[in-house]
Design goal:
alpha/beta; Rossmann fold; seven-stranded mixed beta sheet; five-stranded mixed beta sheet; 13 helices; globular; binds glutamic acid
């Protein structure tokens, strides 16, 4: 039976959460509400026509599928899979697939819409999508994960395709999962279709630089923000929450750029050393011990306290809803670079704005990943692969350009970078709808 009580620990939620009735979130941290309140604000300022407003609010397609698999024990278990295509007016739907107990329809709908706005901010010819399976991948064997991935892929295969919907990695999915999706899709089509997913292993049509792309994008926009705030890049202090694919690469690249990374954290907690950490050394520790816990060259700091450290740049690169109305007033960073999707609630936005904190919003800050996904898709379709400096150079150009366009929008309308980014994105998607007209 579905539980009617709120589930306190999102990671340990039971497997029977109804995908469409999500009681885990209070109003402030409901991700769909978080997305919609910014959308409404930007749409109002753009004087968006009421008809278009209605069209852009509604996801194109919401698919919920049952995913039965045989566990290694021989027992059959049925998981719930979701794929939401939010908008495809600018091109194929694009967005990751996550395997997590916290997946819900509300969350996937919000993340799919965020992908639409993210792709539009960096001006890629893509719409937005997101998918997920409600499961705890840490309790599954490699064989179980493969069967889950393949069965989920075949359940949503009608929407997938290089011209219609192109998944990528997200929370708890990786290159290996993308390889299984690509193979399952290709077996159904009876020929190899590399461009159906991005974030694949390089040896099977992945792009060089894709793995580092989100973290690299964070560096590019942070550098730009520091310049804009007339702050020095060299020696700027940084705290990074999250030491996964986004956070660890952002920390590594920021350090290489001469910035001083003073704190990093993962789900076991964090390490703080005001004199600066050696990020490479932290990575070595994690390679050996799996987590940061126990790293000796700094003081332990909690995942809550890391957000409140006196630093120049804070990079929340872990989960949603970590900066809320409860802790926003305690944040001391001058710049926040949102490596994660949705780390700040809408209520917290107002508090950060009032404090004059410069927030580089998620739909701009972490768009480096989908930008190199786009490069991967282009390379697969062209059958011609670029070297890594070319990938990085083109990524930098797109990120710098997007940053400047968002900043110009924010100045023109006297709004925050976040609302500026939404306005830029909504304006681009709306323009496409106006040109295409309404098919009836
Ligand atoms: N999951 C990533 C994101 O949230 C990448 C999506 C993609 O490359 O399609 O942006």
């Amino acid at each position: 039976m579905p539980s009617s009580k709120p589930v306190p620990n999102r990671r340990k939620a039971n497997a029977f959460i109804s995908p469409d009735k999500d009681r885990r979130f209070a109003a402030e941290d409901n991700p769909f509400e978080a997305m919609m309140s910014r959308f409404d604000d930007a749409a109002r300022r753009l004087n968006l026509e009421p008809g278009l407003y209605k069209v852009l609010r509604a996801p194109d397609k919401q698919i919920i599928v049952s995913v039965p698999i045989m566990r290694d024990s021989g027992e059959i278990e049925v998981f719930t899979g979701i794929r939401v295509l939010h908008n495809t007016s600018r091109g194929p739907a694009k967005g990751g697939i996550r395997f997590d107990m916290a997946v819900s329809l509300d969350e996937v709908k919000a993340l799919a819409a965020w992908m639409t706005w993210k792709c539009a901010v960096v001006n890629l010819p893509f719409g937005g999508a997101k998918g997920g399976v409600i499961c705890d991948p840490t309790s599954m064997s490699m064989g179980e994960l493969e069967r889950l991935t393949r069965r989920y892929t075949s359940a949503i295969i009608d929407v997938l395709g290089p011209d219609s919907d192109v998944p990528a990695p997200d929370v708890n999915t990786n290159e290996r999962v993308m390889a299984w999706i690509m193979d399952t899709y290709s077996m159904h089509k009876r020929h190899t279709v590399t461009a159906v997913v991005t974030g694949k292993p390089v040896a099977m049509g992945g792009s060089l630089g894709r793995r580092e792309a989100t973290g690299r994008g964070c560096l590019v926009v942070t550098r730009r923000a520091l310049e804009r705030k007339k702050m020095k890049v060299k020696g700027a202090t940084v705290a990074v929450q999250g030491f996964g694919n986004v956070g660890s690469i952002a920390a590594q690249l920021m350090q290489k750029e001469g910035m001083k990374v003073v704190a990093v954290s993962d789900k076991t907690g964090g390490i703080y050393n005001p004199k600066g950490l050696d990020v490479e050394d932290c990575l070595k520790w994690v390679a050996e011990h799996k987590f940061l816990a126990g790293y000796p060259k700094g003081k332990p700091v909690s995942n809550e306290a890391i957000l409140e450290l006196p630093v120049d740049v804070l990079v929340p690169a872990a989960l949603e809803n970590v900066i809320t109305s409860k802790n926003a007033s305690k944040i001391k960073a001058k710049i926040i670079c949102e490596g994660a999707n949705g780390p700040t609630t809408a209520k917290a936005d107002a508090i950060l704005d009032a404090k004059g904190i410069y927030v580089i919003p998620d739909i701009l800050a972490n768009a480096g990943g989908v930008t190199v996904s786009y490069f991967e898709w282009v390379q697969d379709r062209g059958g011609y692969f670029w070297d890594e400096p070319t990938v990085n150079e083109r990524l930098e150009k797109i990120m710098v350009n997007a940053f400047d366009e968002v900043a110009a929008m924010a100045v023109k309308h006297d709004v925050s970078m976040r609302i500026g980014a939404y306005m830029l994105a909504i304006d681009r998607v709306a323009a496409m709808h106006r040109m295409r007209g309404l098919y009836a």
